[in-house]
Design goal:
Protein-Tyrosine Phosphatase, Chain A, UDP-N-acetylmuramoyl-L-alanine:D-glutamate ligase, 22 strands, nine-stranded mixed beta sheet, single chain, 466 residues, globular, 3 domains, 16 helices, six-stranded mixed beta sheet, Udp-n-acetylmuramoylalanyl-d-glutamate--2,6- Diaminopimelate Ligase, Chain: A, domain 1, alpha/beta
């Protein structure tokens, strides 16, 4: 982070300086009292379960000398308790979360960089990562780490950008209307990417049309200088549905797209190869990450790179180095068992894509361990059954379904004729029987929604192979 003076922080947050020196500086933003230290600005955020103002005494004891607070009494008590009032700058704001967001927007205005925002029902983290790999071939590029993609994570990511950052790639997550609009207002992206319109969060948004409208909030601050890049589909992401003053660039497998994807070769856990045609020129790309669907994510990344003056050759070099964020189709192996760890989250589209990767990965048996998919609303039981049917149709040899609605995955697989399937309401029940189900030589896909904590299954399998 570029050093900021207390006065700049006051200006950026719209706050009032209660105490301290306006010319002191800070070089890091912190929202976790346990790791606050000298040189940090501590934001006392108020969440559903915790009010960080109660930790101000510990923050001051840690050596932190600048705090942004909305509870003046809590500050006074902490300062009195620690005896550090004279050495600490305290900025009073109305809402500390909103102040963090406003400071992020202010900070972006101090930097000279291009901003790429990525959203979509599925694939946004992978596309974010691939876009960063492309851009790093020519520019100093930074991006969100982990899952810092919400109303707090995006501002924290922005405020971690170094002063000489040339490209910022920012994933934007949402589960309700208005959330992408908030992030777009903070970021004011130069380039927007929408990966797809699926069923994730349909419980909150009501329909795919609602999901589409929520994703399109990304363009709310676009004008004729902006570009929206999207994976073309017939219903939502096409020139008939998307209208605006900005330029639209589409990637897809037909002649209606600006970037035409073809000749996808799937090597299972070893990655994919595909061709991309643009302006009459054909280029071949190799990705060391699994999944046919990543050809579309990579095409979006290439399109974004070309908007910044990156050549196809440079983009290909960047993609060849790609590694995805952990728990997204990460292949692990030990003692003759191979695990495809895709436990970060799940939706119907990403479930199908992961099953495709499983079936392209060599092993004696292909096993799918699938957990509940959340936030599907009244479509949930149907969508779970369809996933079971899809697994059986693709040739999965053994299926394990875990969770409340996942019982429909097992039933769907059985309806399609799969003879070997197991259902467990809780993953602990599966873990008790796991040794009798898994064998040496198996390739095992483990996937489910975040709240299912399916990574615990991956961990247990790996531990038992030691």
């Amino acid at each position: 982070m570029k050093k900021l003076t207390v006065n700049q922080i006051k200006e950026g947050t719209g706050g009032r300086l209660l105490n301290g020196n306006a010319f002191d500086t800070a070089e890091n933003i912190c929202t976790d009292s346990r790791i606050a230290q000298a040189g940090d600005v501590f934001f006392a955020l108020i969440g559903e379960l915790h009010d960080a103002h109660q930790y101000l005494p510990q923050v001051l004891e840690s050596g932190c000398r600048c705090v942004v607070i909305s509870d003046e009494n809590a500050w006074k008590q902490a300062a009195e308790q620690s005896g550090e009032a004279g050495n600490v700058s305290a900025i009073l704001v109305e809402d500390t979360t909103r102040a963090l967001q406003e400071l992020a927007a202010f900070y972006l205005g101090l930097l000279n960089l291009k901003k790429i925002a990525v959203t979509g029902s599925t694939g946004k983290t992978s596309t974010r990562d691939l876009t960063a790999y492309v851009c790093r071939e020519k520019y100093k590029t930074q991006k969100n780490t982990g899952n810092l993609n919400n109303h707090i994570g995006v501002p924290l990511t922005i405020l971690s950008f170094e002063e000489d950052t040339q490209v910022g790639v920012l994933e934007m997550g949402m589960d309700k209307q208005g959330e992408i609009d908030l992030l777009a207002r903070i970021v004011k992206p130069d380039i927007g990417i929408i990966t797809n319109i699926g069923l994730a969060h349909i419980e909150n948004l009501g329909s795919q049309e609602g999901i589409f409208q929520a994703k399109m909030e990304l363009t709310g601050y676009f004008d004729e200088t902006n570009v929206l890049i999207a994976a073309r589909d017939e219903e939502f992401l096409n020139r008939e549905r998307i209208q605006g003053p900005y330029r639209l660039v589409l990637a897809g497998t037909d002649g209606k797209s600006d970037f035409i994807i073809s000749h996808i070769e799937d090597f299972g856990a070893d990655g994919i190869q595909f061709c991309l045609e643009h302006l009459g020129e054909m280029h071949r790309f190799r990705l060391p990450i699994p999944g046919r669907h990543n050809a579309f994510n990579a095409a979006l990344a290439v399109a974004a790179g070309l908007e910044l003056g990156i050549t196809m050759e440079e983009a290909a070099r960047g993609l060849a180095k790609a590694q995805l964020t952990d728990k997204r189709l990460t292949v692990r192996g030990k003692n003759g068992i191979k695990i495809i760890d895709d436990t970060y989250n799940a939706s119907p589209d990403s479930m199908r894509a992961a099953i495709d990767v499983l079936m392209k990965t060599r092993g004696i048996r292909n096993i799918a361990v699938l957990g509940d998919m959340f936030e599907l609303g009244e479509t949930s039981l149907t969508q779970h059954e369809l996933i079971g049917r899809y697994a059986a149709q693709q040739g999965v040899q053994l299926l394990v379904a875990i969770g409340r609605d996942a019982e429909q995955i097992a039933r769907g697989a059985e309806k399609e004729g799969l003879e070997k399937s197991f259902y467990f309401e809780r993953k602990e029940e599966f873990l008790e029987h796991m040794d009798s189900i898994i064998e040496r030589g198996d390739v095992i896909l483990v996937k489910g929604s975040r709240g299912m904590e399916m990574e615990k299954i991956v961990k247990k399998i790996m531990e038992q192979q030691e």
